[in-house]
Amino acid sequence: MSQKVQPTVSIITVCYNSAATIEDSIKSVLSQNYANIEYIIIDGNSKDDTLQIVQRYSDKINVIVSEPDKGLYDAMNKGIKLATGDIIGILNSDDIYCSNTIITEIAQEFVERNVDLLYGNITYFKDDPEIKVRTWLAKPYYDSFFDNGDVAPHPSLFVKKHVYDKIGVYFPDFKITSDYEFMMRALKINKYKSYHLNKFIVNMRMGGESTKSFKNIVRGNKEIILSWKMNGVKPPLYFWPLRIFKKVVQYLR
């Protein structure tokens, strides 16, 4: 890729009491072979050793913020506001990239395809990143994408900054699925151009907020219903059966 067309990729890691996992995420970003990365870490005023671990790499991290926030999506919004890159990706504090060339590949696709959003596939692990317990193979976006229970894996999502500037960021009152609402707003409602990179982008630890407890699963589903209402659309009757079926398939694959 010519240096003249290299976009800056801002990567945001949001963390809170993540001392057990944050270093793996940081190393995953710093090991990328793409030179034009802006790395931003937003810490929610952790009470453990998270910030001390982050500070070990402060000379290689562009922005470090540590202060109380109103939750995961509020912290993400802070990072987006601070980002100066052309493209923004969010890597959770317990996830890692699947290869050290993936950001180079993503930046290349943005340049060549002139898209506004890009997403790919993700895998899940429990303790050992080499042992996959779930695989999420996404689909390219199509008109009935959300109606058919499909959704892009948010950890694999990269968005041009102008999209956030135009349609807004994440709804902070949601605690579980504000990313779902944002992607619906961007893809279904505003019809921004996207590309599905058919590669594994992120290896994600099991135990995220959406599946941590039955209460969170219920809350997440309620937020999905609200996401449709907020955007003035209504899911078809077959939406929930298809959504459940496709989640089950991820475990069987």
Automatic annotation (TrEMBL):
<protein>
    <submittedName>
        <fullName>Glycosyltransferase</fullName>
    </submittedName>
</protein>
<dbReference type="InterPro" id="IPR029044">
    <property type="entry name" value="Nucleotide-diphossugar_trans"/>
</dbReference>
<dbReference type="GO" id="GO:0016758">
    <property type="term" value="F:hexosyltransferase activity"/>
</dbReference>
<feature type="domain" description="Glycosyltransferase 2-like">
    <location>
        <begin position="10"/>
        <end position="138"/>
    </location>
</feature>
<dbReference type="InterPro" id="IPR001173">
    <property type="entry name" value="Glyco_trans_2-like"/>
</dbReference>
<keyword id="KW-0808">Transferase</keyword>
<dbReference type="Pfam" id="PF00535">
    <property type="entry name" value="Glycos_transf_2"/>
</dbReference>
